[in-house]
Each structure stands twice: as structure tokens, then as C-alpha cells.
Amino acid sequence: MKIRTNHIILSVLFACIIGVPTVFGKETPKIDSLKAAVNTETDAEKIVDIYIHLSSLYENINPDSSISYAEKALELSQKINYKYGEGTALFLISYVYDQTGDWLPAISNLEQAITIFTETKDSLSLIACYLNLGVLHSYGKDQVQALNYMIKAKNICEEANKTYGLSVVYSNIASYYEYLREYRSSFRYYEKAFEVDTLTGNIDNQCFNHIALAYNLLKLKQNEEALLQLNEALKLLPQINNNQGEILVTLGFIAYYIEVGELHTAKEYIDRVIELNSKNRPNKFTVDIYNFLGRYYLKKQEFKNAIRLYNKAINLSIEQEKYDYLSDYYNELSEAHAGLQQYQQAYEMQTKAREAYEMLKPDEIIQALSNFEADEASKAERNKILLEQQLTSAKNESEEFKFRAKAGLAITALVIVMVALIFFLILRKKHLNELKVNYNTINRQKLLLEDNLVKLAEDEQNLKKLNATKDKFFSIIAHDLKNPFNVLIGISDLLRNEKEARNSDDFDVLINGMYHAATSGYELLENLLEWSRTQTGTIKFEPQPFFIHKVFEINKDLNLEVAKTKGITISISEIKAMVYADFDMVNFIVRNLLNNAIKFSNNNGKIELLAKRDDKMLIVTVKDNGIGMSPELIENLFKIEKSVQREGTANEKGTGLGLILCQEFVKINGGNIWVNSEIGQGSSFHFSLPLSLS
């Protein structure tokens, strides 16, 4: 999760524009001096400037006083038609409302400020206003509007040849990719923001972008690199001297220590951030603290405490109408309910997470980002054409100069010819160097454009896969998950209303039917929850050395009774090799493949659980002599976008979801999965696992 740092960055940005530093209690003498100056100053515009200065000095220590002085500046500015003072006062009122969590009036005041700065063509102030407006809209549901404001600020930055606002634009674009879980693209834009901050020497932004880069690296499972980024942020903290900055850095370390499982250290940082937030007025990081406390208790498997804190984070987010992280909170709340085996509540939270995610219209965000990337590529192409035109012009100028030089040579003395020739050669060398520099610039931009096109193609494929995953998920819920419940409702209704059925010969058949329906529904729901965890990146990977033979024996015993109903024998390989993998995942893979083998085996069939060493890997095989598969079926077997469903030899039902999960788990463990099969000749499912070195 990314902590919101943008409004703090923008505070610093606007402070640069109006020339007022962020201050705390040490500024009391300055405040007293300014209050005294108001009583002696006669120039109305200077009085407005003093009110603005006082408002800025109070914004972090007394929001009410800050708004009071800003409103005085606004009223006086309107009387004397002082547009700069009027727009600046509106901006400061908006900022204080944002600080106190009242962001709807913050938007209203900011829009009025934009009208004034547009009229006065104050590009510097417009950049700050559009950036803040983008951040404020990002709290709510209209994420595309927020993104458009950021892009507008970027365009003004480029037109006015200003660089400082670009950092905030890039970091916000990064946050949209982060919301879409495109962490590679997000990391790229945070790096661009950091490059701008390094060029401009903006220490505050550098610190905050170190934290944002650390969050992305944690999502990419690059924990050591994330810690390096957090330590860099910590080094910059003394130069910021900002309570909110210290809170942000502390929250970053909490996220790291929870991720690596050092919970005792994480709790120490949590206690520290609670103390810091209690001194911060208003307590704007309360939702973030609830979230991290929830994650801490979730990691400790204290699920009731985790549920309590996630509910607080959700309720406070809804109360403040800030929806940008609501989906994450519901997902983690679902995991906590699942930990208590409250699967119905877990499923409901997954549904709410999906609704919260869709509420922000991710498809429209993706389209807006695609348009932005296309515009950026178009700008690069236009720059390339402009450079080519400049090269052509430079070449023509060079040819014209050569002609004049030759004409001069024909009418001058030998000495002058020598001097002119030397001068010409110097100029030519200079032109060639310029041409070389321009060529290198064009070539770099061409490579950047090609790289962007490749990444756009990758993103398109990922989007197609995400849509296919969503369609599959809905299909399973709409059809397969509903069927077991229909059976349970039907049979239980019959037993409830037809008393004769309880004493009939069919009673055992009905009870068995209810048992099989309940078991099927539970297994499918369990698979759905496991699958959702793989898609959201919340599943834990805990490799350890263990004997594969142990997994074979567990699953043979588990399925022995089911196999007996078909007269199927299950044999186990005698090889007792040790692998290094996640035991629960491997157990799931073998269980699923063995269930499928039984399902598609004929009566009196034979199933073998085999293992053989291959270099540093162990090849595990589940082999049956059942009905087999066609080449077309095999081709679509592990593709989420293809619906592969067929009944077993005893009319057993299936969704194909289990094999998709098997593929996911095998990849997580560093192996591959494949199948050999012919119709009527049975099937052999193979997957590889790393051998343990011990």
C-alpha cells in the first residue's frame, strides 16, 4: 500500500511560489511581528500579503487561525481587486480544509483560485492548483478526472518550462499504475519523479519518493532493495524537520518489517507512529495506522483483532469519502475472515473489494493512461521530426557557407586562403559535432519510443488476461457454485416437507446426495478463495525441505475410499526424494491431480504416483489409464480464458479451476507443469520441483 504523500509535496511546492516556509512553534516571534505590522501598514496589498503570510505560518499549528487570516486576505483582496492575493487566499483555505479532512470545500475553493489564476495567466500558481485539485479528486470516485488534472498541470509545466511540478505529476501517475497493480510501470514513474527532484534539489520530494519506491519494491518482492530506499529516506529526514515526514518514513518501516515477518520490530514502529500521530493536528494518518495494525494482527494470526481494525479503517474511509484504498482494506478483511474459517463473510468481503475496485472505474483509468502514454509517444515522435528538420536546416546552412567560402578563395591572396581554409575546417568540425549530438538524441528518443510501445503491448496482454480472469470468476460463481446449493436446497426441502421420505429406502441416497453437494461446494469455494489470493498477491510462499513421499502417502490415504467406489488402485513410487518447496502448495497440487485422475478413470483402473530426479529438479508424475484427452483439450487446459469443463466417468462435476491453481503454485515454487495424454490411453500430468540441497 502507498501512503498519501502528495498533499505534503504540494504544500512545499506552493510555499515556494508564495515565498513562505513551513513552520512550527519556533515561528511565534515572527507571528507576533506580523500581527504588529498589520496595525501600522497603510498599503492594502501589503496588508493582504501579511494576512497570507500569517495564514501560512498557522496552517500546521492552528488550522482555525490559518483559515481566519486567509479569509481576511480574501475579503480585502476582493475589495481592492488584488487578484494575486485573492487567488492565493483561496488556495490556502483549500489547503487547510484538505489538512482537516474536509476535502469537498477544499475542491470548491481551489476551483475558484484556478479561475482567478487563469485570468491573470499566472502559470506558476496554476500548476500548484491543478496538482492539488488532482490529489483531492483522487480521494473520491472520479479518478479519471483527477488524472486529467495532473496531466493538465504537466502540460502547463512544459509550456512554462518549469520542472518542479513534474515530480508531483510523475508520482501521481505512478500511483495510478500502483492502484492497477502494475508495479513495474509504477516504479518507472516514481524513478522519473525522483530524477526531477534530484535535478531541482527538492529534498522533501526526494524523501517521499524514496518511500514510494520502497512500497513498490515490497510489492515486487525485492525486500532488500526496499530497505535501502527506506534508509535513504531516513537519511534525508533531518533536513525536512517535519512531523508528517517522520510519520511517513515510520509507516514505510512498518510495511517492511511486517512484510519480512519481523513483527516485534514492526510493533515498536507502530507504537512510535501512534505517538507521532497523536501530536499531529489533525490526525490525518489514522486510517493508515488502522490498516497497518490490521496487517500486523493478520500476520500474527490474531484474526479477531485484525477484523476489528480493518472495519475501523473501512468505516473511517467511507465517512471521509476517501475510496482510493477501500478495495485493499476489504481484501485483507476477507483474509482475516478466512483465517477464522468464516468463509461466507470472506466471500462477502471479496465481493465488496471487487465492488470498491470497480467503483473507481479501473477500465476508464486504463484508457486514460493509455491515452496519456500515446500522447507522450506522439510528443516524442514530433520532437524527432523537429530534430530532423533542424538537422536538414543545419546541413543547408553548411552548404551555403561552403559556397561563399569557395567564392572568396578565388579573389583573395594565398595567405588569406590559408586562413579561411583553417577557419572553415574548424567550423565544419563544430557542425559535425553538433550533428553527432543531435543524432544521438534522436536515437535515444527512438529507443525510448520503441520501449514504450513494447510495454504498451505487454500491458494490453495483461489487461486481456485480467478480463479473462474476471469473466471466469463470474462464470464459476454464476453457474458452478450455484449448483451444489441448488441440490442442497432441493433435498433439504424434500426432507422437510415430505415426512415419508425420511423413512423411505431412498433416505440414504438423499443424505449421500446432500453430503456430496456440500463437499463439492466447499471444495469449489476453497479453490475460489485460494485463486483470489494468487490474483491479489496475498498468498504466502514458505518453502522448506520435505520428502515428496510424505505428500504421496497423505493424499493416497485421503482418496482411498473414493477410489474404492470405482475399484481403482493407487500405487506410490518407492523413490523418497527430498524437495525444497512450499509443503501446502505441493500438497494441493498432488491432491488436485489425484482427484482428477480418479474422476476420469474407468472402473477397476490404475493410478500411479511417480517421482524421478532430473539434474537439480524432481519430476513428479500422476499417471492414470483412464479416458484420456484430445489434443484440442490439452491445448486449452491451462488457459484461464478457455472454458475446459467435462464430466468424469461417474458424472462427477468440475470447473477446470483446480488446474489453473496448480499451474500458479508450480510457478511460484520455480517449476513447470505439463501433460501427456491420448484419448482412451489415459493421462500423465508432470510437474517439476527444486531438489533440496540438504
Automatic annotation (TrEMBL):
**Can you name this protein?**
histidine kinase
- Species assigned in the record: Draconibacterium orientale
InterPro entries cross-referenced by the UniProt entry: HATPase_C_sf, HATPase_dom, His_kinase_dom, HisK_dim/P_dom, HisK_dim/P_sf, Sensor_HK_Regulatory, Sig_transdc_His_kin-like_C, TPR-like_helical_dom_sf
User: Keywords assigned by UniProt?
Assistant: Coiled coil, Kinase, Membrane, Phosphoprotein, TPR repeat, Transferase, Transmembrane, Transmembrane helix, Two-component regulatory system
The UniProt transmembrane annotation reads 407-427
Annotated Pfam families: HATPase_c, HisKA, TPR_8
Coiled-coil intervals: 432-469
- SMART domains for the chain: HATPase_c, HisKA, TPR
Q: What class of enzyme is it?
A: transferase
Q: What is its EC number?
A: 2.7.13.3
Q: List residues of the Histidine kinase domain.
A: 476-693
Repeat region (TPR), residues: 287-320
Superkingdom of the source species = Bacteria
Catalysed reaction, written as an equation: ATP + protein L-histidine = ADP + protein N-phospho-L-histidine
Q: Which residues form the signal peptide?
A: none
